[in-house]
């Protein structure tokens, strides 16, 4: 990690807010990403603080907010679905540089436990609820980068990680629903279940990961065990904490 980010707190902005910034900068890249840019893009003061911190930690802007060539390239690949591989490689380079434990021979993200990951963020100065936000952002970008992620880590967010996780979860749920009962063709298009997570998110104006979890709720009348309800509540609470973080530590 460079000297610029050595003593900075790891990025703790929400994944959704980060994606909003990438697409906003895709419409126009200013010569300096300063407070006026965030304000004009509709970000709150809290989100502005988190985004500024994230860009500095990842070394994508300098101390004056001047975007790096790497940020300019990253924004471009965010806009083009055909650039998925380029985006993944660039994110991998950024993460490997910014999170030194990824180069640690004693740490393997693909098999790590939650506590092992927490200890790595402890060493970076992140703790408490803020650490949870740092880890959530890291894991989402790691998923987009195509890094192997331990099931012990990805299971903490039941709807999955990364941009396409909600859609994958929805497709799996649809297959399970089809096995439970046949739906009359005349009614199929009218069922809420015919909407995918992204469509639900747009209709309700909520985060796609929250919509993905709502989409996993069983149909009325379908039996739902106490243990399944408990797992769903825990997953929903974890997602809410990640998407709607507390003001503590901000």
How would you summarize this macromolecular structure in one to three sentences?
The chain is 59% helix and 0% strand.
Structural overview:
This protein has 250 residues and is an all-alpha fold. The chain folds into 2 domains: 3-154; 165-243, no CATH class. The protein is 59% helix and 0% strand. It has helices spanning 3-6, 15-27, 35-40, 45-57, 69-79, 84-98, 114-123, 128-144, 151-154, 165-180, 185-188, 197-204, 208-215, 226-243. Helix 10 (165-180) packs parallel to helix 13. It is globular and about 55 Å long.
Structural class: mainly alpha
Mean pLDDT equals 81
- Count of discrete domains: 2
Cα shape: globular
The rounded Rg comes to: 19 Å
Helix content: 55-70%
Proportion of residues in β-strands: under 5%
Uncertain parts: 1-6, 166-170, 180-193
Largest sheet: none
The end-to-end span amounts to: 23 Å
Q: Report the order of strands and helices.
A: HHHHHHHHHHHHHH
Number of helices: 14
Number of strands: 0
Which helices and strands appear, and what pairs or packs with what?
Layout: H1 3-6, H2 15-27, H3 35-40, H4 45-57, H5 69-79, H6 84-98, H7 114-123, H8 128-144, H9 151-154, H10 165-180, H11 185-188, H12 197-204, H13 208-215, H14 226-243
Keywords:
single chain, 250 residues, mainly alpha, globular
């Amino acid at each position: 990690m460079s000297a610029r980010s050595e003593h900075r707190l790891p990025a703790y902005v929400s994944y959704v807010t980060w994606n909003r910034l990438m697409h906003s900068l895709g419409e126009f890249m200013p010569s300096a990403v300063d407070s006026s840019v965030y304000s004009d893009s509709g970000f709150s003061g809290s989100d502005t603080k988190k985004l500024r911190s994230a860009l500095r930690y990842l070394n994508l802007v300098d101390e004056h907010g001047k975007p790096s060539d790497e940020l300019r390239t990253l924004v471009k690949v965010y806009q083009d679905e055909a650039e998925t591989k380029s985006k993944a490689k660039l994110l991998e380079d950024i993460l490997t540089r910014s999170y030194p434990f990824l180069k640690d021979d004693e740490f393997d993200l693909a098999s790590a436990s939650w506590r092992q990951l927490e200890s790595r963020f402890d060493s970076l100065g992140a703790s408490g609820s803020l650490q949870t936000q740092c880890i959530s952002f890291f894991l989402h970008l790691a998923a987009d980068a195509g890094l192997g992620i331990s099931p012990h880590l990805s299971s903490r967010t039941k709807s999955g990680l990364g941009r396409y996780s909600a859609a994958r979860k929805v497709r799996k749920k649809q297959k399970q629903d089809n096995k439970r009962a046949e739906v009359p063709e005349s009614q199929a298009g009218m069922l809420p279940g015919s909407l995918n997570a992204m469509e639900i998110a747009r209709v309700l104006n909520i985060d796609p990961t929250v919509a993905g979890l709502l989409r996993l709720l069983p149909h009325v009348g379908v039996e739902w065990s106490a243990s399944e309800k408990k797992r769903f509540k825990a997953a929903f609470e974890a997602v809410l904490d990640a998407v709607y973080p507390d003001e503590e530590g901000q």
